[in-house]
């Protein structure tokens, strides 16, 4: 096996390969052959998935200076070492399914990094330097032990896909709403009790998944026209106790979507749900009333509390 590995690496060096596949090799240590002499100067993509690596060499960037993609999925790596920060051309880093407990601050030096996958590890926090990754588009930190998100995550101005499923988050920092490019946010299976009221205000954010957050009983009104996943939210209630909520004005009665009962009941005083109900009532009337004069007449006749909410729609 060792001779075969050495031959594979030697051929890659001689023929100046850009891709090297070392998956499923039962490697416990980083191959010395990769680090011999000047290393593999032309290598751009290194695949070392499903081995038994526990660490990375300190001179990795010196021997593989042009590395663009590094796949280390399913190993036993505990710490992302400082040396990782010297891979200045790295765009894709996959460290999913390892035993990671620490990600070093030097990861913030990977200024070209676009995709970072750290799912299925044992991380309790991420360094604030993650916010220095200005080109980062995808961040997957699902199935860890995170209690909070990185402090400067909102500075990742290119971030489009953020997956934080199955962690221990109690809240979502409001500054997360400032991410200008975020298109998909998944926070299923956490301990969220509320969401920032500004969440969903950005036009770019179209998909939000908060399934299986049993303490979550309300959604921000900005999410009402987005694609939402919220099954398993709210405290469970008996079917016999379920009552479809509605709001009435005059002869018109508007029932809320059936999904609302899964995340709250009529006894829950949750402002976002109330606002969502008022928006539904407003749009229902809008279909029957034509022209600004009639709408103004209806608003004049409506209760003051309704008028205050509808004028904000």
TrEMBL record:
Gene3D superfamilies this protein is in?
A: Ribonuclease Inhibitor (3.80.10.10)
User: Residues in domain Disease resistance R13L4/SHOC-2-like LRR?
Assistant: 105-189
Q: Name one Pfam family in it.
A: LRR_8
Keyword annotations: Leucine-rich repeat, Repeat
Its GO CC terms?
cytoplasm
> Which InterPro entries does its entry note?
Leu-rich_rpt (IPR001611), Leu-rich_rpt_typical-subtyp (IPR003591), LRR_dom_sf (IPR032675), LRR_domain-containing (IPR050216), LRR_R13L4/SHOC2-like (IPR055414)
Q: What is the protein named?
A: Leucine rich repeat containing 28
From which organism does this entry originate? Sciurus vulgaris
């Amino acid at each position: 096996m060792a001779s075969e590995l050495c031959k594979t690496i030697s051929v890659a060096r001689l023929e100046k390969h850009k891709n090297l596949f070392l998956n499923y090799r039962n490697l416990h240590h980083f191959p010395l052959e990769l680090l011999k002499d000047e290393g593999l100067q032309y290598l751009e993509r290194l695949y070392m998935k499903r081995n038994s690596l526990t660490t990375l060499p300190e001179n990795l960037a010196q021997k593989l200076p042009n590395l663009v993609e590094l796949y280390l999925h399913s190993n036993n790596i505990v710490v992302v070492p400082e040396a990782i920060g010297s891979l200045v051309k790295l765009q894709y880093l996959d460290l999913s399914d390892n035993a990671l407990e620490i990600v070093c601050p030097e990861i913030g030096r990977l200024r070209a990094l676009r995709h970072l996958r750290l799912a299925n590890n044992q991380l309790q926090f991420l360094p604030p330097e993650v916010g220095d990754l200005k080109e980062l588009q995808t961040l997957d930190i699902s199935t860890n032990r995170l209690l909070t998100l990185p402090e400067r995550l909102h500075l990742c101005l290119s971030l489009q896909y953020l997956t934080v499923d199955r962690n221990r988050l109690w809240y979502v920092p409001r500054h997360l709403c400032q991410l200008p490019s975020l298109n998909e946010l998944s926070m299923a299976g956490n301990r969220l009790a509320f969401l920032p009221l500004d969440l969903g205000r950005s036009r770019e954010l179209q998909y939000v998944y908060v399934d299986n957050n049993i303490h979550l009983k309300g959604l921000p009104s900005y999410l009402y026209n987005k694609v939402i996943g919220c099954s398993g939210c709210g405290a469970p209630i008996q079917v016999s106790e379920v009552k479809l909520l509605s709001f009435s004005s005059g002869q018109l009665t508007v029932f809320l979507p059936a999904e609302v009962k899964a995340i709250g009941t009529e006894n829950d005083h949750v402002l976002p749900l109330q606002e969502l109900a008022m928006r539904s009532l407003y749009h229902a009337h809008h279909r029957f009333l034509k022209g600004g004069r009639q709408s103004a007449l209806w608003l004049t006749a409506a209760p003051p509390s309704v008028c205050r909410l509808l004028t904000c729609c």
